[in-house]
Design brief:
Layout: E1 17-18, E2 23-24, H1 33-45, H2 48-54, H3 60-75, H4 100-119, H5 126-137, E3 142-143, H6 144-152, H7 154-161, H8 164-167, E4 181-182, E5 187-188, H9 189-192, H10 197-203
Helix pairs in contact: 1-3, 4-10
Bound molecules: iron/sulfur cluster.
């Protein structure tokens, strides 16, 4: 048997534990496969910074695949035969990357994170990052859906894997659940709000600044 039925309950039900958030499906025998996928999605949507840090998928199809594999492993069922690989042109295939300008913007955010990571610079104070995060959380350019799409861009995976120094800084604010992707810089705001001023000044130059919201904290002296 190589197919795992998603319409009947496996032994023990649809169990799932997310160690990074401490969440477990509270009713594995009372929630369908699709219902469990939706619960995992909701849990991750509320924890974007943790998902970014640990590269956890935030789209339903990926989560469904993850729950399938998780269950197979748990009940000792063989893994499915992997499908033939598909090709993503240039490594960029996402709804947020609709034109060449989007790819240029993606480079702004990626460059900022790489520069900060390699500089060895620390983060701003908790007071400062919380004040910045409060502005981002209410900003029209802060997008949670785009952040979810951004996580699916192949370069995002390699980027987060190459920013080990930043992960060690334990970047958290009290507004993390509302922090998404800054549409002006294509940088996750959960990172951006902690970045030291010299890195921001260097990477967010005169060509990018007009795209920021007028109330953006980056524009404040
Ligand atoms: S424009 Fe400024 S305030 Fe708005 S999301 Fe981007 S960084 Fe945050």
């Amino acid at each position: 048997m190589s197919e795992l039925s998603h319409t009947t309950f496996p032994p023990g039900g649809w169990q799932f534990t997310q160690p990074q958030t401490g969440w477990s499906n509270p009713s594995p025998m009372g929630t369908t496969f699709d219902g469990t996928v939706a619960k995992i999605y909701e849990m991750r949507r509320k924890n974007p910074a943790i998902c970014l840090r640990h590269k956890l998928p935030m789209d339903m199809p990926s989560i469904a695949k993850e729950l399938d594999l998780y269950t197979r492993r748990r009940i000792g069922m063989p893994m499915p035969t992997p499908p033939a690989p598909t090709t993503a042109i240039g490594g960029f295939s996402s709804p947020i990357l609709s034109n060449i300008m989007d790819i240029k913007k993606l480079a702004i955010g990626a460059g900022l994170l790489m520069e900060w990571n390699s500089s060895g610079a620390g983060k701003v104070s908790e007071f400062e990052s919380n004040a910045r995060a409060k502005v981002c959380a209410e900003c029209r350019l802060n997008s949670l859906p785009n952040y979810e799409h951004w996580l699916k861009v192949p370069v995002a995976g390699s980027l987060t894997a190459r920013t080990e120094q930043l992960k060690a800084l334990k970047l958290v604010t009290s507004h993390d659940a509302k922090l998404g992707l800054c549409d002006a810089t294509y940088c996750p705001t959960s990172y951006l709000v902690h970045a030291p001023r010299p890195i921001l000044d260097k990477r967010i130059g005169p060509k990018v600044r007009p795209n920021l919201d007028a109330k953006c904290w980056i524009l404040q002296p």
